[in-house]
Design brief:
- The complex is a heterodimer of chains A (209) and B (141).
- By secondary structure, chain A is of the alpha+beta class.
- Helices cover 34% and strands 23% of the residues of chain A.
- Chain A has five helices and eleven strands; from the N terminus they run αβββββαβαβαββββα.
- The longest helix of chain A is centred in the N-terminal third of the chain and has 20 residues.
- The termini of chain A are far apart.
- The termini of chain B are far apart.
- Chain B has one domain: Cytochrome c-like domain (Cytochrome Bc1 Complex, Chain D, domain 2, Orthogonal Bundle), CATH 1.10.760.10.
């Protein structure tokens, strides 16, 4: 009798654990969902869409929505002097870069959240030092408020915080956006296993095209 | 009989355990923890560095030649062009302000002990004197 009780309690705990463990990733055979709030407007479902933006990248070139027309792009927020999570996240972004290096339909977009220090030349040097092509991986700066607004749109927390290491507090999330400006997947850039799962999502979206 | 055999087996295992921990014994435990928490994200778990962005600390000729100056680098940060093992680096390292002089001393000794064979360790008095001598460095944070 007691055994049975133990057993069912255990099963319950397991169920609860697995229910909380994962932010409901799409099952392997399902299409990736469109993430974010949705509204019904005149009977049609309207999904959360990435708004217009325009930033300056490491070659002093403009990077805006048109840069990613017909592309899938992978987004993160960082700053070059960040001592805490960014080096880890950048290393995972580099994994993504290398995995999709030969795939012209995938690009990467990294926003600095420290526009005072991370000028265009600083971003350029950073990109050069990790040996990545500026056609593929854009490191951008621009209007500070706009950058923080965009972080909201990508569901990434970013804010100034004098008490945080390096002066900024932000999450290491990496986001996947499709050619219709919909957010389709995300992962924690500090967790290599989660990034591996995310990589599969990118591939899946490519296969759908 | 079988009890005795168990006894010997147990003894053997304990002996192996002691041997193993003796071989992997590393006297700078605090340095090891601090390194993992405050340096490894950039310089790598094994001090290998990262591309041309973060210089290596393992077998770094720069470290070998500027062992004590490392105290100043940790305390104030550094942003200049520097050459490590023939490669040029330039990327700001901010001050790691969380570490006090004793902790800095332990980190330097961990680096010396783990990745620079034959290098002597530094004393807390040397580290304090060194920090005194670079008190005109600009604090990067």
């Amino acid at each position: 009798m007691q055994y049975r009780l133990f057993f069912s309690l255990g099963a319950l705990a397991l169920m609860m654990f697995s229910a909380c463990g994962d932010p409901s990733p799409a099952a392997a055979d399902q299409a990736l969902p469109i993430l974010g709030n949705r509204d019904i407007v005149d009977g049609d479902t309207v999904y959360h869409q990435i708004p217009d933006f325009s930033f300056i990248a490491q070659d002093s070139n403009v990077v805006n929505n048109a840069t990613f027309a017909d592309k899938l792009y992978i987004v993160d927020f960082f700053f070059t002097t960040c001592p805490s999570i960014c080096p880890t996240v950048t290393k995972q972004m580099l994994r993504l870069y290398e995995r999709f290096e030969g795939e012209a339909r995938v690009k990467l977009l990294a926003h600095t959240i420290d526009i005072r220090h991370d000028s265009v030349p600083v971003l350029k040097r950073y990109a050069e030092k990790i040996h990545v092509s500026s056609d593929k991986w854009h490191f951008v700066t621009g209007d500070e408020e706009k950058i923080y607004d965009m972080a909201d749109d990508y569901f990434i927390a970013a804010q100034k915080d004098p008490d945080a290491p390096g002066g900024f507090d932000h999450s290491g999330r990496i986001i996947l956006v499709d050619q219709n400006r919909y957010v389709r997947s995300f992962c924690e850039g500090t967790d290599p296993d989660d990034v591996t799962r995310f990589m599969d999502d990118v591939q899946k979206l490519l296969d759908e095209q | 009989m079988s009890n005795r055999r168990w006894g010997w087996g147990l003894l053997g295992m304990v002996a192996l355990g002691v041997l193993w921990s003796a071989c992997s014994y590393q006297p700078f435990r605090q340095g090891e923890i601090l390194y993992a928490n405050f340096c490894a994200t950039c310089h790598g778990e094994n001090g290998e560095g990262f591309r041309d962005l973060y210089p290596p600390l393992a077998n770094s000729d720069y470290f070998r030649e500027n062992q004590l100056e490392t105290a100043c680098i940790i305390h104030y940060g550094m942003d200049k062009e520097l050459v490590v093992n023939g490669k040029t680096y330039q990327q700001a390292m901010l001050a790691v302000t969380q570490l006090n002089d004793v902790e800095i001393c332990n980190v330097i000794n961990l680096l010396s002990y783990s990745w620079h064979s034959g290098m002597k360790t530094v004393t807390i008095d040397e580290v304090r004197a060194q920090l005194e001598s670079c008190s005109d460095w600009e604090l990067l944070d």
